[in-house]
Design a protein that fits this description.
The chain folds into 2 domains: 5-225, Rossmann fold (3-Layer(aba) Sandwich), CATH 3.40.50; 229-299, Alpha-Beta Plaits. Helices cover 35% and strands 27% of the residues. It has 12 helices and 14 strands. The protein has helices at 45-52, 74-78, 96-106, 111-124, 140-151, 170-185, 197-203, 221-226, 243-250, 277-287, 302-310, 319-327; strands at 5-16, 19-30, 34-38, 60-65, 68-69, 81-84, 158-162, 189-194, 206-211, 214-219, 231-237, 260-262, 267-272, 292-298. The strands form 3 sheets. Strands 6-7-8-3-9-10 form a 6-stranded mixed sheet, with helices on both faces. It has a 4-stranded antiparallel sheet with strand order 2-1-4-5. The protein has a 4-stranded antiparallel sheet with strand order 12-13-11-14, covered by helices on one side. A hairpin with a 4-residue loop joins strand 12 and strand 13. Helix 3 packs across helix 4 (111-124) and helix 3 packs parallel to helix 5.
Length: 328
Amino acid sequence: MTSNSAIVVQRLSRSFGEIRALDELDLEVPAGTVFGLLGPNGAGKTTLVRVLATLLEPSSGHAAVLGHDVVAEPLAVRRRIGLAGQFAAVDAELTGRENLEMVGRLCRLRAADARARARELLERFELLEAADRRVAGYSGGMRRRLDLAAGLIGRPPVVLLDEPTTGLDPRSRQELWRIVEELRRDGTTVLLTTQYLDEADRLAQQIAVVEHGRIAALGTPAELKATIGGSVLSIRLAHATDVPGATALLAGLAAGEETRVDGADGEIRLAVANPAMSAEAIRRLDERRLQVASIELQQPSLDDVFLALTGRPAESKSTEHAAIEEAA
């Protein structure tokens, strides 16, 4: 462990019966940064968060938060972390203020300190006007912000966010992004799992792509995009029904990476080593009389990196989540 590491994971494994959710995973998260954890559903992201939060014990290996082992010193770890999962864990029958004051008291704050801290967070998370309303009447975004506020009551130096913006509208996502950026500026270490690649690109200083319980790639957003090499050719066809034929026609132009296809939007994206390939693509499509709505040569995105590394998009349900739910 380096002196600048807030989280250290060494050869960490966790199995659920025959399912190996984590497979000797190694990871170090620098202190004071937002560290993005990307991967398709079932890759092991949620399992890792639950191990770090002391909610699951590893099958083997070692994990520590700020030098405290998650198995040998679970109470020390819990006192140093904040946690917000995929679903807001707040009491709908209490008001927003009552939820935060209750958590403050559970964190052993004096009553007056719990009230002061609750008000501070309600104001910071723009919930002060709704503070005395029952949470049952809050929107999804408001509940998610309240849940994150509850995780910050004790001013934890490390915050674990497991897909915190899943299902939120664009405005609510932007609000949570602002909060995460504020946490980093305050020196908090944030481990963020997400399937929104623009979110990782915007917030994270470092990103690890997880696949089959291991780290498939690690680096800054710019470093990961550079692994694709060359450029990405984005072609949108006038008729979505032409996509299968056009994809086969253009396959030979790709620079060895997986071709991304969006049949509904009529878009084909392929990595190309030479920008001149765009002219060749137009020639081939024109020969077959396939109408092109737009064509653009772009720099690689994290979406392109994600597909190239995992070979598959995110899925709505996974064996990992099913196994965790059954174990719980």
